[in-house]
Structure prediction request, 380 residues.
Amino acid sequence: MFLAILASNVRLISHWSESRGVYDDICYLRQAHLFQRFGWQGLDTSLARETDGYLAGKLRSIDFPNWRDPTRAPCHTQTADGSKWVMTPPPGTGFALALFPEGFQVIPLYALANMIIAGFALYGLWRAREPVSLTAAAMLGVLSIYFMINPAKASYSIAPTMVVCVLAGLFTARLFVDDGRRRLLAVAAVGLLLGLSASFRIANVVLSAGYFLFFALSFLIWRSREAFVSGLTLGVAFLVGLLPVFAANLVNSGNPLVSAYGGQDTAPRSLDPAVLRAYLGDTQFPLIVIACVWTALLWRFPGHTGVRKLVLLVAGNLVLNLGFFATHPVFTPYYITPILMLTLWTLLFTVVFTRGTSQGSIAQEPGGPRPAEMLSRRST
Prediction:
């Protein structure tokens, strides 16, 4: 099933056009063009560099009104000092597109992302050892590969985001089944991935909210050296992952902490009934229910000493992200997809790593019983 859906996805993707009329597409492709033309200096998205007519040509190809006036181009804004016009999206998606030849960028990006997701789905299936975990791996694998077309096709930024989510889910699960140095490496990997995710979509920075809340509360409650080092490692790795965003901000707005995206979303936060109804009628709502029910079941039947800690992290992150987008003034079919996929992949890898230990013993959770002791208890 995995391979059949993957083959179907690749066949559909191979017929996609890069001029489908979506305004954001033009900006991601222009960023890729700048990277291919200027190298790392492509971080500078000023319209003053638009000397080859690339942007105008792209806008004309989708019949954009006023395509001759670059200042009317979508997702471009004037800097606070009025010195230049720059793009608002972060540079990550454009960089990913720039890895492929101009004119043939979207198809290979999506095809590669689909193959990576299918690979992790197969890995989860291979690691599953019990009927329950095997079923969960099969269902999530099918859904995740399908989602690489719908809703991932809605925005070029979602394809690389989905890859980051599965990687972050894998390392998050390892946080609570590894110990010592391996656990610290998993913390660093999670922080780095979450920071890098913001390079694809600025809103992805919210994916880290639950992690920082969990590690902050862990230190405040336990006051241990391990909790402090883990939180510090997460924070430093997260900042390292944010370096591309900081660099782009510095080049375009003159301040690494001021995004060109700032000011684009100034509507006050509130619970809009129209937005809530849109989510209730969308594919994202059943996924929310599945994520919440699975989280609750894992709390009730943890199967490993560290799982309930992971459930607290996952639940807190899910609540914070759902609250953020529920009060967002705009609805789209993919806004909540990243947090849902991060949550579901984390839960799946947690289940397959901690249940059915015939392939090997589970690493000791710091402060918990040793693997041999756990297996002895189960035998008794």
Remarks:
- Confidence is low (pLDDT under 50) at residues 358-380.
- The two ends are 40 Å apart (CA to CA).
- The chain has two domains: 19-98, 106-358.
- The CA atoms of residues 287 and 293 lie 10 Å apart.
